[in-house]
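User: What would this chain look like folded?
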Amino acid sequence: MNDQKIDNIFIYWIYFVSIIIIFAYVLESYELISGIFRDDISYISTLILFIFLFYLARGGIHLYKLRDAFRKLNHPNTKIQNNIFFDITNNFLQSAGKGITKQDELKSKFYEIVDDGFFISDLLLKLGIVGTVIDSY
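Assistant: Here's the prediction, encoded as structure tokens.
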């Protein structure tokens, strides 16, 4: 994988966050976002926003570390510290050098790190539904 494709991993996340910020700015210019928070008697919207922002930042950190891990594979003289993706990839390459190739195991280890994204998206949806029910009373 060349450096251009490696950089695209993180750049796509930056584009996504930029679109979210622009969309939030446009919505707030019509006072839609502040109206939602002002009318929310259960404060679930605030909880949803904080959980969303936390996992959005966490996803960006994971993508940045994944980008660094790929860069380290292409440029061995690069220094990387505290990068779980590189550790997993390095262990995989060492076992592959011994004749053991377990690509499914590598995929599952990567998946374990980001697996909670599906749970969090479902949780946010359910919190939104609960907030709708609470606010309707």
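The mean pLDDT is 84. If you want, I can go into more detail on any region.
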